[in-house]
Specification:
Number of helices: 3
Shape: elongated
Number of domains: 2
Strand order of the largest sheet: 3-2-1-5-4
Order of helices and strands: HHEEEHEE
């Protein structure tokens, strides 16, 4: 996992523990005060939310305790694509340009252009060099890409 990803997960864990957990406990107590718990939808919803929150807290604590945090700024891979690389690509068919960073599984977020190192697309990129072209079998057909840039940003 990258340092940036670890920091983001730690921030989420802190928010869950210090903001969300107390809010849910308060909601449960308030719903209990309304009486009959069998037919109390607010109580059941709050308990369900508590279960999701506690599960996410456990997941994040476990992930952070076992994570290997890699300092991307100390990688010296040159123009070779390895974990942590930010890769500029050009679709050879459409001319569209796109940039992705290869990150750990838990920090992947396609909306932020962060792809998991274990994803098929990232596996197709790993080991290639700037200037290389490659073919990728996507669900909607074969795509051809050229790697136009590789950099290691913090």
């Amino acid at each position: 996992m990258t340092q940036k990803g670890a920091d983001r997960l730690r921030a989420e864990l802190e928010r869950l523990k210090s903001v969300d957990r107390p809010r849910i406990i308060h909601a449960i107590a308030e719903a209990r005060a309304h009486g009959d718990l069998k037919e109390n939808a607010e109580y059941h919803a709050a308990r369900e939310m508590q279960g999701f929150t506690e599960g996410r807290i456990k997941e994040l604590e476990a992930a952070l305790s076992y994570a290997d945090v890699i300092d991307i700024s100390k990688l010296n891979a040159g123009s070779k694509v390895v974990f942590g690389a930010t890769v500029d690509l050009a679709d050879e068919d459409s001319g569209e340009e796109i940039t992705y960073q290869i990150v750990g599984d838990l920090e992947a977020d396609i909306k932020q252009k962060l792809i998991s190192v274990s994803s098929p697309f990232a596996r197709a990129l790993i080991g290639k060099n700037e200037g290389d072209s490659f073919e990728f079998q996507a669900p909607n057909g074969t795509r051809n890409y050229e790697i136009t840039g590789v950099r290691y940003l913090v």
